[in-house]
Each structure stands twice: as structure tokens, then as C-alpha cells.
Amino acid sequence: MALELASETVWFEKWRYDDAECKYHEQKNQNLLPSSIGAPADVVNRITKLEGENASLRKSVQSLETTLAQVTARLAALECSCSATAKASPPQLQKPSSQKQEQDSKANDDDDDEDVDLFGSDEEEESAEAIRVREERLKSYAEKKSKKAGPIAKSSVLLDCKPWDDETDLKVMEEHIRRIEMDGLVWGAAKQVPLAFGIHKLSILCTVEDEKVSIDDLSEKIQELEDYVQSVDVAAFNKI
After folding, report:
1. I need a surface site. Which of 2, 78, 208, 224 has the fewest CB within 10 A?
2. Which residue ranges have biased composition labelled Low complexity (predicted)?
């Protein structure tokens, strides 16, 4: 009986039992330790990753802000150059025969003034017939003065015609604009002016008679070409 008990793993001393129990709990705690500290390490890794992504986003935002500032500066420079071009006076066309016509008209008026005797001759007697003749002459003289043809008022206008996008053919746009005909309207030179982002505008010069042509009506006729023209602006307006 004693030999059977000795062969079995039975501890009769209490200290052996306590020692085995302590080792068991220590081993159990060691097995649980990696899983208990794993969660905080994962959280730290995620926070580090988020901070890296946040720094990358900040760099992207700064790069976009720098690009936007450069584009804004380029647009401002283009607007300044366009304004300077618009302020430049367009070439004025002078008719060589206009001065001669004015001189001939002035000479004819002087001849008419010499023919009119406003006060009559001192030798003529002041009679009813003389008074009637004098009044008729005064009336005729006043009518001639009122019907005197003055110089025709003309203006030189520079129009900026802006297309919808950079795919619009400005040559075709110019052909359609020149087909607009109005009494007192004469089309002049035209050129393509860079606007922004590869888009060009058509600057076209025209001469109009002020009494016959309204710039607002002309702008409306041009804007009716909706397939080509987005807007029309008066860049320069000079009296001739």
C-alpha cells in the first residue's frame, strides 16, 4: 500500500501544494500578458498612421494654395495687360476730301452772305415794298442757315467679342460679325488677343455715324450669334 502511494503524484506536504499553485497562476498570467498589452500597441500604431496621413494632407493643401495664388497672379497680370491695350487709342481714319468739302461749303456760304443785303441801300426809300423784300430776304437767309449741312458726327469703337471656350473658331466668328450690315457702319481691322487659359478674344474696330448707329443695338446684334459669342464689351470709344 505504501509503495502504491509513493508511485502516485500526490503531495502530502502543504508547502508543495502551495508552491505548485503559485507556479500555475504565474504561468497562466504569463500566457494572458501578450493579449492584454496588444490592444494599446495597436491603438498607438493607428494614431501614428493617422498623424502621417494628416501631415500628407497638409502638404497637399499648401501645394494647392500655392498653385491658386500663382494662377490668381497670372489672371491679374492678364487683366492689366488687356486694360492697357484697351486704353490705347485705335487708329483714326481721315478722309482727305472732307477738308476740301468744308472749304467749298464755307465759300458758298460767304457768297450767299454777300448777296443778302440785310439793311438795304441808303439811297432806297423806306417803303412798304422795301420792307417786304427785306423781310423775305431775311427769311430766306435764315432758312439757308438752318439747312446748312454740318459735319457728320462719327465715332471709332473697339469691341471685344469673347467666345464660350478655347474651341471656338475666331475666324468663323469674325466672318459672321462682318456680315452684320447697318446704315452708317463700317468695319475695320480685327485681331485675336490672348485672354486666359488658352482662350483668345476677338478685338474688332468699327466706325459708326452717331445719328444712324447705336452701339447698344450693334452689341445686341453681335450677341445674337449665340453659337460663337458669349459677351461683347466696348473696349474703346473715340469721337472722330
Report:
1. 2
2. 87-100
For cell 487708329, the residue is 91
Could you read off the pLDDT of 51-88 as tens digits, one per residue?
A: 888 888 888 899 899 999 999 988 988 888 877 776 66
If phi > 0 it is left, if psi is from -120 to 50 it is alpha, else beta; for residue 125 that is beta
User: Which of these ranges, 12-16, 21-25, 75-79, 209-213, has the smallest mean pLDDT?
Assistant: 12-16
Amino acid at 207: T
Cα 225 from Cα 221, distance rounded (Å): 7
High-pLDDT (> 90) share of the chain, %: 30
**Mean pLDDT of the region 31-39:** 50
Residue 175 φ/ψ, nearest 5 degrees: -60, -45
Q: How far is CA 198 from the centre of its chain?
A: 13
Residue 3 φ/ψ, nearest 5 degrees = -70, -35
* Contact predicate 157/205, CB 8 Å: yes
Q: Is 218 exposed, middle or buried (CB count within 10 Å of its CB: 0-12, 13-18, 19+)? A: buried
Count the Cβ atoms, other than its own, within 10 Å of residue 163.
Answer: 20
Q: Which segments of the chain does DSSP mark as H helices, in order?
A: 2-7, 14-87, 96-115, 128-146, 170-178, 215-223
Q: How confident is the model at residue 132 (pLDDT cuts 50, 70, 90)?
A: confident
Other C-beta atoms lying within 10 Å of the C-beta of residue 222: 20
Q: Rounded distance, CA 77 to CA 157, Å?
A: 25
